[in-house]
Each structure stands twice: as structure tokens, then as C-alpha cells.
Design a protein that fits this description.
Blueprint lengths: L4 H10 L6 E2 L3 E2 L5 H14 L4 E2 L2 E2 L4 H6 L7 H9 L2
Parallel strand pairs: 1-3, 2-4
Length: 84
């Protein structure tokens, strides 16, 4: 598994021209929303607007605990992040 799908897709964009590039499901609440928005936009533009972004709230409490985040707030964090 690649640690950063957006970086991998940006690299793939440099050697492809027509295929759409997608993330699967990116666990948005585990990331800084402003930084994520910048990285998504950069990848989208570098790829010639071929990025298809899949997002989700996350489903594993351990992932949130590892980052000191409240698992029960994942849906509100997702909603707030998508508003940026």
C-alpha cells in the first residue's frame, strides 16, 4: 500500500494522458482539511483535471485514536472538511 495516494496519482499523471485517476476512499477526517484541499487541487490540476476523489468518514476507531482524534466526531469532521 502506498502511504500517500495523492502523490502516487500525481506521479501517474505525469506518464499518462487520458485515463481517469482515482483514490478509492480517502479517510478525510484523519487529515488536515486545508492541506488536503491544497493537495487535492494540485493533483487535480497536474493531472489535467482527471482526478476522481473518493471520500469517507473512516471506520476504524484505532486510526482516530492513533492521531488523538474523536472517532465519534468523524462524520462532523468529514462534513466540515468538505466545506473547505
Amino acid at each position: 500500500m502506498l502511504a500517500d495516494p495523492l502523490t502516487a496519482l500525481a506521479v501517474a499523471a505525469t506518464v499518462t494522458r487520458r485515463i481517469e485517476l482515482g483514490t478509492g476512499v480517502l479517510q478525510v477526517p484523519l487529515r488536515n482539511p486545508v492541506e488536503l484541499a491544497q493537495r487535492v487541487l494540485t493533483t487535480h490540476l497536474v493531472s489535467g483535471k482527471r482526478l476522481r476523489l473518493g471520500v469517507g468518514a473512516g471506520s476504524t476507531a484505532a486510526d482516530f485514536a492513533a492521531l488523538g482524534l474523536d472517532f465519534t466526531a468523524r462524520f462532523s469532521r468529514l462534513s466540515a472538511s468538505l466545506g473547505i
